[in-house]
Design a protein that fits this description.
about 450 residues, alpha+beta, Helix Hairpins, BirA Bifunctional Protein, domain 2, 8-stranded mixed sheet, 4-stranded antiparallel sheet
Length: about 450
């Protein structure tokens, strides 16, 4: 049975399951003002002092613990030496000290765990810091348009997708009686068109852009969602099973975690994965938004793109990924614009994000259809995903990127609205006709 998680989730960091390296603590120690400046761009109050105080406490306890452990080891060795010399008095004295240390050390170990978890808890709830060049702003109104492609069709007289789709097999009423709000049945021609879109996207990303197709699990454990930063902060937007697993809100979770706890061979980088999966979101906080149609559903299909690469290549990989998503829109002939998100509108794990917004003549506006983000080493730190640069002994954290290539349901919406005809039919985009058995028009 699937249940929406509406109650607080046990913080996995406090449960001691994950490392305390969600942010680079060394960077915070050396650059507390820069760290606080990054938080300020995210709309957060300064926290470096609190983090460093907790860190200092943890390190102080750790130093004391290490000193006691060293003393215990030395005393244990000295016991044997004293007995070899038949100095029973010294041996007894040393044994008494070792016994006392064995009673003291566990309590100090518990203190250190608690102190380390306090640092982890502080860091786990903080978003990624924006990269240089990301515009400062509070919300979507301050995003910056950096590109526009195609000529938007007039909105006058254009119908919205739910009115166009109903005679073609888009059925919300049946889904309402079976599953409730924010679900849909796709039937007949609309179902076939949706399937064609997903297949076209996968074929394009694998053949043209070199992504490896993956059919991943859609049920994952806490660790996977913590790694990509959906947990612990966004539990209310997820669905959980009664055995504790979670339905993925995006294939980003399954794909990015392929590098979890790995030291990836440098020669294999970049890793590029793509998957077409169903995704599940409770849409917590979306009451009253897009209640009609396919724009905001609890269950939807999406083709995801994930790249895992080196820090030196991640910016170029971000541009490449975004261009791959744009290529889908251009091949389908769908007008769009690329938006650079401001600091206040970026996702929790992103350091830089481009949104692609497709033109919907029925709504007379551009709507998001893809979000492509460079997460830097933020997720890799949570997953302990690393690589070893050639010629170096130490490892470094990888950079991870993710993007929609594209959301299938929203692309279906865009096709219905941009290719609608006055007689109620919808012209099939030329690129999709091979996936439709040559069919060029959907008719009621």
């Amino acid at each position: 049975m699937i249940v929406q998680c509406g109650k607080p989730v046990l913080d996995p960091v406090r449960a001691g399951q994950y490392p305390a390296n969600m942010h680079d603590i060394r960077f915070i120690r050396e650059n507390p003002q820069a760290f606080d400046a990054g938080l300020a761009l995210r709309g957060l109050a300064p926290l470096a002092d609190s983090i460093l105080a907790a860190d200092a406490s943890s390190r102080s306890i750790q130093n004391s613990l290490q000193e006691l452990l060293a003393e215990r080891n030395e005393a244990s060795k000295a016991i044997g030496q004293a007995k070899a010399k038949k100095d029973e008095a010294l041996a007894a004295q040393l044994m008494e000290r070792v016994t006392a240390l064995k009673e003291t050390i566990p309590a100090l170990e518990a203190q250190h765990r608690e102190a380390a978890e306090a640092v982890s808890a502080l860091l786990a709830g903080l978003p990624n810091l924006p990269s240089e060049g990301v515009p400062e702003g509070k919300d979507e109104d301050e995003n910056v348009e950096v590109k526009r492609w195609g000529d938007p069709k007039p909105s006058e007289g254009a119908k919205e997708h739910f009115d166009i789709g109903a005679p073609l097999g888009l059925d919300f009423e049946s889904a309402q009686s079976v599953s409730g709000a924010r679900f849909a049945y796709l039937r007949g021609g609309v179902a076939r068109l949706s399937r064609a879109l997903g297949q076209f996207m996968l074929d394009t990303h694998t053949a043209k852009f070199g992504y490896e197709e993956v059919a991943p699990p859609v049920l994952v454990r806490d660790e996977a969602l913590f790694g990509t930063a959906q947990l612990p902060k966004f539990a209310e937007d997820l669905f959980q099973t009664t055995d504790g697993r979670w339905l993925i809100p995006t294939a980003e979770v399954s794909l990015t975690n392929l590098a979890r706890d790995q030291i990836v061979e440098t020669a294999t980088l970049p890793l590029r994965f793509t998957a077409l999966t169903s995704c599940f979101r409770s849409e917590a906080g979306a009451a009253g938004k897009d209640t009609r149609g396919l724009i905001r559903q609890h269950q939807f299909d999406k083709v995801e793109l994930v790249s895992i690469t080196t820090p030196e290549e991640s910016d170029a990989e971000h541009e490449r990924m975004t261009s791959a998503a744009e290529h889908i829109l251009e091949t389908l002939g769908l007008p769009y614009r690329r938006m650079l998100l401001c600091t206040g509108d970026m996702g929790f794990s992103a350091r830089k994000t481009y949104d692609l917004e497709v033109w919907l003549p029925g709504q007379g506006k551009y709507r998001e259809i893809s979000s492509c983000s460079n997460c830097g080493d933020f997720q890799a730190r949570r997953m302990d995903a690393r690589y070893k640069p050639e010629g170096q002994k130490s490892t470094r954290f990888l950079h991870t990127l993710n993007g929609s290539g594209l959301a299938v349901g929203r692309t279906l919406v865009a096709v219905l609205e941009n290719y609608q005809n006055e007689d109620g039919s919808v012209t099939v985009p030329e690129a999709l006709r091979p996936y439709m058995g040559g069919l060029d028009v959907l008719r009621p």
